[in-house]
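Write out the bound-state structure for calcium ion.
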Amino acid sequence: MKKKFLAMLMASVMVLGLAACGGSPEPAADGGEGEGDGGALPTVGVLIYKYDDTYISTVRNALQAALDGKAEVIMQDGKGDQATQNDQLDVMIEKGVDVLCVNMVDAKAASGVVDKAKDAGIPTVFFNREPDTEVIKSYEKAVFIGTNAADAGKMQGDLVKKIFDEHPEYDLNGDGKVQYVMFQGEPDNPEAIARTQYSVEQAVENGVEMEQVGETQVCNWDTETAQKAMEAMLAANEGKIELVLANNDGMAIGCIAALSNIGYNTGAEGANFIPVIGVDATDAAKDAIQNGTMSATVLQDGQAMGNAIAAVALNLAGGADFLAGTDYSFDDTGVAVRIPYAPYEGE
Ligand code: CA
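---
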């Protein structure tokens, strides 16, 4: 790839030399790749765990926009299947992409990706779904861009405290405790586990007594799955649920649909209301908060994530250090960049 690039650069230097006659183009040394010098754009291969995910759609649109005119982008939809993603990886390596940006379907399969990328000498930016730190560290050209998984949960826990302080009437049975239901994304996903754990722990730390109703509902981040599960929960426990905590807004929206079917959280004056707190700040969640059918969410800034992935990928394509010329910094692992969350209760 390097050779091919040099050959192309030499060719364009020769053309320039003829045309500009006496101009002194820079010697064909390293650097300058991706500066839009016509035909010499680096190729960035992007593997997405699945296109059908609202937050990830925001990230990939932002990434695409940030790379526009600076790189040739090949993007593939893993459709939630790791075997499919592995095949897509092989094709990208065969095509000789300059950088890989990988949103793992199954973060536990990342060592296979690292091994292949390392063999091919292709720098790799993992993002969103986090491989083990040791896996990232096993390849000097690998890096991770994500969030701090604990933070989203802690912010949900802070929102629980704030919301119940402001609305003591949400304690429907007046026992001073918050009876809650929990909707988890996936059983083994570190981000999901952390949100489930820290949301409750942080609320307790804030002095809120928390009491879970029923089992944790694992709904694969999915709106419809969550709606069905919430319908079943409500059928068994109507009147006993005082709070819905969901690992993402997709599931929160499903819960609100189930609630509104029985006359709760309709946004109408005087309607019964149970606070629902999600994560992501998707457009649907922002609308729900605006309409008074949802309480709050935690902003996962997909735009900022996409911009960060693009900046690091372009650095790697140009042979520069991961974070050269950016405001980002590594966390204490030395191989991960964390994009911060923020609580969101409406504009
Ligand atoms: Ca209560």
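---
Residues 171, 173, 175, 177-179, 242 surround calcium ion (CB under 6 Å).
The longest strand covers residues 177-184.
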